[in-house]
Design brief:
mainly alpha
């Protein structure tokens, strides 16, 4: 009878630890999925920004040519400076989006590590329970 109790405690502990480890693994997979979705969404937003920028630049070029401006002098300097600022802005947006994705991946890794730590803790507590049950059975 006492062997059955010890075995039940051991099995219960193992199942609980396995469940905790799997829970951490599932959370990590979920964070990885979120990071991938964010990457896809960021690529879509970047494409939309580029298309809008191309429309504006094309409209500016048409407007400048219709008014007889050449591609030299102050209008060209302004366009160049605008392009530099847009490039800097795009770079910051891309960096921000990549940092968000990296944060999601770190959260996933942390969730998995916590699941493993909880599983280890459960195994240690269970081993103490098994030892006590075994000693009381003797």
């Amino acid at each position: 009878m006492s062997f059955a109790i010890v075995a039940a405690i051991a099995v219960s502990t193992a199942v609980s630890a396995y469940g905790q480890a799997q829970g951490g693994k599932i959370q990590q997979q979920e964070f990885e999925r979120q990071a991938e979705e964010e990457k896809i969404a960021a690529e879509g937003r970047e494409l939309e920004r580029k298309q809008e920028l191309n429309k504006v630049l094309a409209a500016n070029a048409v407007s400048a040519s219709m008014s007889g401006m050449t591609g030299e002098g102050t209008p060209a300097s302004i366009a160049l400076e605008s392009a530099k600022q847009i490039g800097t802005s795009e770079g910051m947006l891309n960096l921000s989006e990549k940092l968000k994705q990296a944060q999601l991946r770190r959260q996933g890794a942390n969730a998995r590590a916590m699941g493993n730590i909880q599983a280890t803790s459960t195994l240690l507590k269970g081993s103490v329970g098994v030892t006590k049950a075994y000693q009381s059975a003797e």
